[in-house]
Amino acid sequence: MNQALPPGPRVAAYQTLRYMRDPHGRTAELERRYGTPFTLPTVNGTLVLTTTPDGAREILAGREEDFVVGFGVEALRVLVGEGGLLLLSGDAHRRERKLLSPTFHGARMRAYGNAVVESTLREAATWATGRQLNAQQSMQSISIDVILRAVFGVQSGDRRLAFREAIRLAVDEVSPAPIFFDFLRHEFGGFGPWARFKRHKRAFDALIYQQIAEARRDPQEREDVLHRLVAARYDDGRPLPDDSIRDHLLTLLVAGHETTATTLAWSFAELAQHPEIVAHLRDDLAALGADPAPDEVSSLPYLDAFCREILRAHPIVAEFFRTVKTSFELQGWQIPAGISVAASILRIHRDPTLYPDPDRFRPERFLERRFAPHEFAAFGGGHRHCIGAAFAMNELKLVLGTLVPLFDWRLTENRPPRTILRHVTLGPERGCPIVLGRRLSQRSARAA
């Protein structure tokens, strides 16, 4: 067994910069040069990256006690607090995950469905034929509204506006530098990006605590995540403290709103290039009648396959990570404690042995076979599989099921957008600008 780390490039800052410019190309280049796995120095520490499904399976088969909190997520602590699932490991992670899991499965998805459709129609009502839209921003407007209603339990229009502004200031427009580099976290007498972020974060926290207090006083049983967390109890009967509820809400916000919006933006890009897929989706949706229930829409097999193919072709995160606690064997290499191991979702999703003709966008592949977590890793896997995966898939299908019958659209350029690194996630260059065509149906507009 190899005791040293696998070979790889050097100079962390240089490697990080090249990766940011071309995540797909740089990972493929390193794989060709060094094989797999290879060692990659980064500004967040040393990473051993595997690019094969077999390597991913070894990581996912690892015991929870083999790992600590994942690579790079420590930077999220300043955004989501100490108690978010992304920052927990061991017994604490198991306890909180057990408490949260019922909120995102089964009948709960039906309860959130109407909120997704209504939020989508509200945004679509502001669009006009011939107008250029930034698909990423427009889809983010929908995803934020969904989270405010289905997760935070915010119902009134004025309150949603207040939360939207707080999210914009404290999350969306925060400077990434002090988030990722702790030596920049100085307030300098109340000036500078870190001081500005702290002010906006305190204001946002106050708004969240106010929402939690109102939920605790509300005698009605409601279906939003906040009210479910207020009602939840640990095994010993204790309720969740306010700080834990806040951390969970912020984790769902940070992990959910931009990622879903990005996937929807990629959907517009692919549909614009594949009119035959648009026609297939519209035929399936039309067969449901004039006003289908949300669960009827989300149950359509081809729509489900389309969303999975989007996530295969355009994964939102490039890798999933684990940080080794004591030691861990990965593909014949004994990885020491403190080193992080990762599997490249980008490369696995383009493995031709799993996905023949991988550069071709083809939803049918997900109707022809099922893929294991180490083969289709859009939501990670193992004990850290994304707890909101069912919620995200349901939202994707309902937003698309609402919008596809309403509009035609085209890309503003003759080429599809390039994949770039946006903070810690991947997304379409310039947010995927599109131009809306004719309105195809007035049914959903009247419903709005």
Q: Name the structural class.
A: alpha+beta
Straight-line N-to-C gap: 63 Å
Residue runs with pLDDT of under 50 for 5 or more positions = 444-448
What's the pLDDT, averaged over the residues? Answer: 86
Largest sheet, strands/sense/barrel: 5 strands, mixed
Q: Give the count of helical stretches.
A: 19
For this structure, what is the CATH class?
Answer: Mainly Alpha
* DSSP summary, beta strand count: 12
Helical proportion?
A: 40-55%
The general outline is: globular
Q: What value does the Rg take, in angstroms?
A: 22 Å
Instruction: Please name the CATH topology.
Output: Cytochrome p450
Strand content: 5-15%
Read across the widest sheet, the strand sequence of neighbours is 1-2-8-5-3
Q: CATH homologous superfamily - what is it?
A: Cytochrome P450
